Amino acid sequence: MSTQPATAPLLIACALGIEHLALRTSDRGGAGGPVILLRTGMGPKAAERSVTRRLADPALAGAAVLATGFCAGLAPGMHPGDLVVAEETRDPDGTVPCVETDLLVKELVRAVPGRTVHTGPLTGSDHVVRGHERSDLLATGAIAVDMESAATLLSAVRAGERPVAAVRVVVDAPQHELVRIGTVRGGISAFRVLRSVLPAFHEWHRSLLLPRR
Length: 213
What we know:
Elements: E1 10-14, H1 17-24, E2 35-39, H2 44-55, E3 64-73, E4 83-91, E5 94-97, H3 101-111, E6 117-124, H4 132-138, E7 144-146, H5 149-158, E8 164-172, H6 185-194, H7 198-208
Parallel strand pairs: 1-2, 1-3, 3-8, 4-6, 6-7
Antiparallel strand pairs: 3-7, 4-5, 4-8
Helix pairs in contact: 2-5, 3-7
């Protein structure tokens, strides 16, 4: 992978107001270039529109894109507050491999000690997944599902060559289904974890700006 320009921006995309709040209130800077926090709105179509529009700005040519927020865990043993680092995102429109995932895992372990970090494919959906749909998606090899990451990353690479990644916080899991985010302990736990992940994102971004040997 080619080195980014020394001031290449980082675009962090999330969908929900509560996700945006968690990230905005914890942002202390520290990345190697400008950081832009984008709230896309909920669902794959909203993510596609918002990311495509934002990346049309020439100032964001080559910008790294990281999709984040909450997700539903698919694998048994997952708990609210666990982290998911996507090795790839996938949906019916395509599959996008993620970059420097090992570094993200290492930095997340440092940023949020004691939290389990899962790695694997992250699949997309156009609706909230519940019940038997979880096991159907798990059978495809995916470990988690959300509505925006796949559309965000696919839109990002379609707009031009750039590093991409997706990191999600499990807000509900097979044994811990939520009715509404933020109304039970699992949602509160996930919110607190999301507030802690930005240093890991900054380190991932900084590493992309370093010369490759």
